[in-house]
Amino acid sequence: MTTDVNGTTTPTATRARRWSEAALLLLGAIGLVVLVYPTFVLMEALPRVDPSHLGHGVTYSGSGIDHRWIAQALLSALLLMLVTGLPIGGLAGRGSLPGAVAQVIGGLAVAFWAVVGTALTSAYFWGPDDRCTYASCSPLHQQIAANLALGVLTAIVMIVMALLVNRLAWWIRTLVPAAVWVAVLVVQHAVWTRYLLPLFQAPPT
Predict the structure, then answer these.
(1) Residue pair 81/178 in contact by the 8 Å Cβ criterion
(2) Which residues share a beta bridge with 88?
(3) For 110, which of 10, 72, 94, 148 is 20 to 30 Å away at the CA?
(4) Tens digit of pLDDT for each residue in 13-57?
(5) What is the DSSP letter of 194?
(6) How many angstroms separate the CA atoms of 171 and 71, rounded?
(7) Phi first, then psi: what are they for 126, rounded to 5°?
(8) Separation of alpha carbons 37 and 4, rounded Å
């Protein structure tokens, strides 16, 4: 920021910083509105089992990890960083109140789109005669819980980071949610295919 001869911040520099942060938060907010598409792409990559009677337990292979999956994962991580706002007093400084508020809203948006994406990818029952294969409707609820893990965990981390706006450096609040998002996403895919899918395909015990 621009300072005068006494080392204090000028009104022009303060105004420019506020406008810059507002533009950054607006860009992040617009991105979070359409986050449902990246969320849907990432969920569609996972193989899943149809729990309906008409589906007879068919396993959908999913699209897997490809260039589109990688692009959407990185885009989502970038959006999580944008809603943090700008630092006060350098990278090691604290964040601003608008950035903290935006990060809370961002966390709620991530959780919301996780629910919406899960609902879209779990819509197996279309007709009045369609019903679950098993009495427990396995593995519908298990797949929903595993699907929601990414969004819910990331949302919790974002909200916690926002509440610690006066205690943590800005770069920590910015990078931790994005790092958690990427890490949980990778673990989710590794665990899903190798360990969870066989459980989803097996009859309930």
Answers:
(1) yes
(2) 94
(3) 94
(4) 677 777 787 787 788 778 888 888 898 899 999 999 999 887 777
(5) I
(6) 23
(7) -115, -35
(8) 46
